[in-house]
């Protein structure tokens, strides 16, 4: 399989080390941020930038997939960002101590299964980055997996951009495009799309509305494509459900690492436990049955396509109006 070289400058934004960067509410923020900047500068001097690490990680995953494709392939593939890369015990391909126990929990649950699993995730990936990877060596050429799990989107819904009303529908649209591409490339594969997880220290926060809306749109899409698509959302289990008196609740601290983004070993156990029975069932199904079920799906009607076009036009109009306002203000 030919592995195309990435345009590294495209993928730099959004790749952030999980527990080495300050987040809102982190009292040690300034010190941690200074350490992170110093570390990044040291890596750049050594020729080990985030961009280069991302490219090397992509090439490594493509080689792993290609090697398996020459044999029996994998029954279940996991695609995503740092949340799922942590199940490999790595961050951008390098061993990460904070993820060691995450990997152990993941292997405890899935290593003994009658189906084979493999994780193809890179920290910092957005939906577009993942789609690019899939188009450049990230999808099996010969042996389709029985199931593909996707957990992506948290890097698309970040503050302050997540407060923009267009962010959620845009991310949801990109997710739909990703799922459509996966289905076309792997028509015999059952796809499991997971909702974006809560993040931060309290809930709701700046990104709550965007995450909720994107998840609702994703769930609605999955409901209309049940023969090959399943939606799973475990976000509610990450919340305490105890009001602090000001309309907020905490995200259970023990379920996330220090960056308040990536699940800890306890958080990943919740995710794995939710996925386990679903994957057990889907991986046991014959792929031929799925192809027959898909054959009976009716394409969208002309009215549905027209309605979708109207929505896209409205969203485009909102974006253009906002750009004009920003340009007039800058002048």
UniProtKB/TrEMBL annotation:
InterPro entries the record matches: Ester_Hydrolysis_Enzymes (IPR051532), SGNH_hydro (IPR013830), SGNH_hydro_sf (IPR036514)
A Pfam family per the record: Lipase_GDSL_2
SGNH hydrolase-type esterase domain: residues covered: 78-244
Region annotated Disordered, chain positions: 1-52, 305-331
Biased composition range(s): Basic and acidic residues: 305-318
Domain of life: Eukaryota
Protein name: G8176 protein
